[in-house]
Amino acid sequence: MTTIQSLNDCDAAGFVDALRGIYEHSPWIAERAAARRPFASLAALKLALQDAVDGAAPAERLVLLRAHPELAGKAAIAGRLTAESTGEQAGSGLDRCSPDEYARLHDLNARYNERFGFPFILAVRGPTGRGLTRQAIIDTFARRVTNQPADELAEALRQVHRIAEIRLNALLGAEPALGALVMDWAEQLGAVSDDESGLTCAYMTPAHRRTAALIAGWMEDSGMTVHVDAVGNVVGRHAAADAGARTLVTGSHYDTVRNGGKYDGRLGVLLPIALVRQLHARGERLPYHLEVIAFSEEEGVRFRSTFLGSSAVAGSFDPALLDAVDADGTSLRAALEAAGHDPAAIRAIARDPASLLGFVEVHIEQGPVLLERGLPLGVVSAIAGSSRYVVELSGVAGHAGTTPMAMRRDAAAAAAEIVLLVERRCSGNGSLVGTVGQLEVPGGSVNVIPGRCRLSLDIRAGDDALRLAAVDDILDGISAICARRGIDERLWKLLEIDAVPCAPRLMDGLGAAMARAGLPRFDLASGAGHDAMRMASITDVAMLFVRCGNGGISHNPLETMTADDADIAGRVLLDFLKTLG
Fold first, then answer.
1. What is the CB neighbour count within 10 angstroms for residue 578?
2. DSSP letter at 349?
3. Of 162, 253, 449, 553, which residue is the least packed, with the fewest Cβ within 10 Å?
């Protein structure tokens, strides 16, 4: 049987021959990767092969893409595919397409080749390696044929690497069992929703309570002592032998946005449960208590108040929030009581900081940085601070046909210039990002110069000095634009949250575990808010990001990841837990 050791020990020709078929008709990839031996792990081998492709000339990468067959194309029908491609296409039922499906795929193949100049490439075994349905393949095909050429070229190469990853797993007998378990659990949770058209799990709804029950059951099955606290957090505890030991907390949230994805938050709950399951099966204990908390609310969907679960643990829950009401007029207090919780007991949830070793959160990145770098994992350096404003611009409405351009006081034109100012000021500055997410012309008409305009500003960065300097420049710029255009401005600050730096000792522990797994350490800031922000008020925090697929999209049904990435995240986290000093 082929092993990493046998691949390290054989000569270059033997190495290339052993990996023949991993990349379609492209032995040059293995030839170039051979110089990187010895490989410490399968993950290191995968990265070396990937780097060989990424370092190739554009023409070589194009030849690689064109070496792949069309899905259910003429070569497949004629039986002229490699054994690997034949098995993969048959595994997803592409050899059993209906006449309508064949016609649809034929049309998509033709459109795709005409647009991009290479065949459509998809790892048809999918995120779990078990195979996509024909309908899922066709839906993905139809979506990607509309991509921009540069974006699709990058995605096609990523799919080539995913195909190679699955083939390498088969060659070396590597089964990402832990990752597959996490993916299976996420699928089960994803089937529990407030509505039938997508995944929505809002605070204290029936779907939310069923989700909590599933999580509690998996915790119990994994050997943890479990309780659901007064705010709805599901808490599982894997106790140390020493009852007086301190506690390391891990976890994330299990609520979702409306029509959200299956892995946001939930990955950080399910992965540590799966690890405790392993520890319990082997009769192992850590030298500290490990607490896995499935935080009940982070997204703010129902009561427009975020971080309810982690705020309670951190001792910063605001009792005034109990009087907040949802769209139907139900108060938060009433929702808790209807679910059997005692709002008066929320204060007692708060943890004693002296009892804690830290908080570590695993989370999908919710962005494209790891994906574009070809890395499964990243160490979060800081969670970005945020400054949010609403800006109201007042000019003069006038007739669109009779007012000369030089005499206009156009509020929308000023807003457009402000949008470009934000984009320009926040580009190329590390973790700094700026967004105008809302832009409206109240009462606007097609033949009237806009007299009023409202827009939002959201400025974020992992470094507060960087963010605040950008805010100052943007606000000064807005004033200058309005003065030059004769526009009156009014501005309201909605939010000011400081950045949360991650603890270097915990970051280093994660980075060292990644290195031992054969992965390079890569640090990045989180632009999104996380429960770790609240936990940072009582203990050191760290985060491990896991790569997203589909361009890094999140808060969306297209949100995805792979069992392989979940599996290596689990191995890194377990190594970190066992070596934490």
1. 12
2. G
3. 553
